[in-house]
Amino acid sequence: MKVCITGAAGGLGEALVRLHLMQGDTVFALYRRGKGALGALEASYPQRLTTAACDIADTAETERACAVLRGQTDRLDVLYNCAGISPAEHRVPLEKTDFDACLAIFNCNALGALRVVKGCLPLLGPGSAVINVSSEAGSIGQCARAGEYGYCMSKAALNMATRLLANEAAKRGAGAAAVHPGWMHTPMGGPEAPVAPEDAARGIAALALEVKTGARTGLFFDYQGNPLPW
Ligand SMILES: NC(=O)c1ccc[n+]([C@@H]2O[C@H](COP(=O)([O-])OP(=O)(O)OC[C@H]3O[C@@H](n4cnc5c(N)ncnc54)[C@H](OP(=O)(O)O)[C@@H]3O)[C@@H](O)[C@H]2O)c1
To answer: 71: CA distance to ligand 1 center in Å?
Structure first.
């Protein structure tokens, strides 16, 4: 398989890179600031791992990275939109909410995934899957938080984007789904989180195969496949 992963230099993204390399797949890993562990992985898998800088909050940089990708492959089996931000200082109630910060979160979490999909459209055909890594925080149906507006609203918007994408993708025989990866012990989730990113990656990669076949397209579920309310 050929897969593309955003936010690939850390957390869940890096776990997905490692998993797909172990499975023998070809991986296009997009990172924002630094390559991190991707540098060593490139040395170990020079034939199957390609990396490129791609800040998904930046339209021009995302277009450049996608153009490079389109020059290297004519097809993607799975596109994982994994990159996301949840700045801890913005997990606050309304009276402390900074709207400029909300816009930055929305730009990255909601529009960023769409920028990448748009740049990869020519690579998505029959049997391709777009996996948008969302969050239970974006579920309107089971919302329990009071505050954290920027992140929760950005993931709710990503969920809507996923439904729209699934409708468009169906026309080309492809699928799209939104996945909550669990509360993972990553830099974002913190050390107390119960889910290992490697376990989340295994679950999500298995579910991606079902999105590819169209069996799970247009849905929102967690990394174990349990459905979540939009
Ligand atoms: N951790 C959890 O418990 C949890 C729960 C629910 C949902 N999620 C979602 O799961 C996904 C992965 O989370 P994680 O825990 O692995 O987070 P993480 O450890 O903070 O890693 C996020 C990755 O996204 C990259 N990134 C951030 N902004 C970016 C941008 N503008 N362009 C490109 N890459 C960008 C980061 O790159 P840098 O290295 O440059 O910072 C980093 O590699 C996110 O979408 C998150 O919202 C996480």
So the answer is: 26
* Atom number, ligand 1, closest to the C-alpha of residue 57: 31
pLDDT in tens, the chain (230 residues): 999 999 999 999 999 999 999 999 999 999 999 999 999 999 999 999 999 999 999 999 999 999 999 999 999 999 999 999 999 999 999 999 999 999 999 999 999 999 999 999 999 999 999 999 999 999 999 999 999 999 999 999 999 999 999 999 999 999 999 999 999 999 999 999 999 999 999 999 999 999 999 999 999 999 999 999 99
How many beta carbons lie within 10 A of that of residue 141, not counting itself?
8
Residue closest via CA to ligand 1's atom 7 equals 135
Indicate whether residue 14 lines ligand 1 (CB < 6 A): no
Q: What domains are there in the chain, each with its CATH number?
A: 2-222 (3.40.50.720)
How would you write 90-145 as a 3-class SS string?
A: HCCCHHHCCHHHHHHHHHHHHHHHHHHHHHHHHHCCCCCEEEEECCHHHCCCCCCC
Q: How far apart are CA 149 and CA 137, in angstroms?
A: 10
Measured in angstroms, how far is the CA atom of residue 81 from the centroid of ligand 1? 10
Tell how far the Cα of 96 is from the centroid of ligand 1, in angstroms.
23
Residue nearest to atom 14 of ligand 1 (CA): 11
Q: How far is the CA of 7 from the centre of ligand 1 (A)?
A: 6
